[in-house]
Structure formats: structure tokens, C-alpha cells
Amino acid sequence: MTCRRAADKLAAMTALQQRIQTNLGRIRGHIADAAARSRRDEANVRLVAVTKAVGMDEIAALVALGVADLGENRVEQLVPRAAQAAAAGLCPRWHMIGHLQRRKVRDVLPVATMIHGVDSLRLLEEIDKRAAAASLGPVAVLLEVNVSGEEQKYGLRPDETPETLRRATALPHVQVRGLMTMAPLAEDAELSRPVFRGLRELRDRLNESGACGHPLTELSMGMSQDYAVAVEEGATLIRVGTALFL
Description:
The chain is of the alpha/beta class. It has 9 helices and 8 strands.
């Protein structure tokens, strides 16, 4: 690489870092404001940066800026991404946030810190079986709930979630940490509020019933267009991509 090309690459990287830093600061400010409005501690909200549309330069910049949690939608991208990052000395916590097929569970288990989109008892059983075979400890998962009732979305119905949760407690290599949902895409973030509130209220009812045997602490909800509303309604994990990289 010539000196000129090296200088150009460094300048581009610096500009990239500055843009992400600016966006990250704005997002963290919105999180703090939303937490204050709902009388929550902003420290209880984790940003999961969704990296599916960016490259390793952006990932390195995020880690350098203190973003510890990264999310990918597809196993085929998550596994090599995690390997690339590790080879570069980067050690974020990886989250599997997209729909997970049972046949890909074995691939994702060594990589993912948390699996967000668990939407069936069969998938829970597959995770338990594969984790046992690999001598892994309990795998942290979130049950995906289709609160909005949209036919095209994955997820358990709210009314079938308690029984699925109850049966999950019998799986020694799975630990359900909480719930996850996706709100309908809309320009007005307020349209997402009933969905987020519904997930929080479902979580609270499950905790009151003692269905899990331990408190469900996590609520994964909110994306670039509506994460502030999600924080107001109790999100502990927000999944943000576009707003970080604009």
C-alpha cells in the first residue's frame, strides 16, 4: 500500500469513527432522556448494535467506542463475523437477533451470548439438546412473542407463552432471561407503544405467576425508529442499526 493510499484509508477511518461517535452520542442521549421520563436508570438499558449491513471497520469503531453488544440476524453472517472480530482482537458480546432455524442451532451456540428470537418449544428443545452435547452451560434465550398479532411475524402468541415458559424450565441447558418482540414498522413511533407495553405487561404477569422459577429481567424491543418509546415502556435491550450508521 502506498503512503497516499494508507493516508486516505486512515482519513476515511477517522471520518467513519467520528460519524459513528456522533450518532452513538445522540442515541445514548435519547436513551437517557427516555429513561428519565419513565423514572428508570439508563444503566439498565443495553444497546445492541445491529451490524448486518456494515463491515469490519464499523465493527472495530463500535468496539473502540465502548459498544459491547453486537447483533446479527443471520447465522451465516454471525459465525464468520465473530471469527473475523476475534482474529482482529475484538471481543464483543454477540447476539443472535433474527429467526433461528433448528438445523442451525449447533453453529450459533459457540458464538452467541444470547439468542433473542426463540419462538417455539421445539427450538428450545433443540437448543437444550445441542448445548448438552457440547457440554455448554445454560444458554441465555429470550422468548419471541408476536404481541401485534401480525401474520407475517414470527413469535409465540401471548396466550401460549406461559405454557411454553413453564415447559422451558424443565430444560437444564436453557435459561429463559426474558421476552422479545418486534413492533409493526411505522413512521410514528407512538404506534409501537401498545406493543411494547403489552410485552412488558406480559412479562410482569409471568413474573407474578412464578411460571419460570426465577425473575424474567430482559425485554428486547425497539429499533432505530422507535427505541426511545421502547425504553419508556421498559426495554432493557434495544436493537439499533440504521441510526448508528447514517
